[in-house]
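User: For a reading group we're discussing how well predicted structures match intuition. Take Hsp20/alpha crystallin family protein. Before you show the prediction, I'll give you the sequence so everyone sees exactly what went in.
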Amino acid sequence: MLMRTDPFREFDRLTQQVFGAQGTWSRPTAMPMDAYRDGDQYVVHFDLPGIDPEAIDLDVERNVLTVKAERRPVERGDGVEMQVAERPLGVFSRQLFLGDALDAERIAAQYEQGVLTIRIPVAEKAKPRKIAIDQAAPEPRQINA
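Assistant: Thanks. Here is the predicted 3D structure of Hsp20/alpha crystallin family protein, as structure tokens, for the group to look at:
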């Protein structure tokens, strides 16, 4: 299909909860996603609320699609004293391993209301197709006299 799971993802989440997103943990944060097939394309939704579209990077290299986004701190004026800061800041990253049946040349992305939607079409060569069956002409029989 479209991705491999990251065995360290849950460990990352637990570590961030214990030490906080701004701790010394250097691995980028994984972003939640949904992925499904819709006809001749795969659709992937990433939750990226509060991220400027200019801070989102999509790269395809060989069969790997990398999504990277950065939530930067909001500029606050002098005299502002933060009371609660629970929204994670920093770099969020996710990689999808695309199969050979997907068309990496025609990937499309859209960002709306904090959700990044990526559409990955199925390659033409991988779509189901009918194969015509030729009927061979019968071979002539020889009659022995």
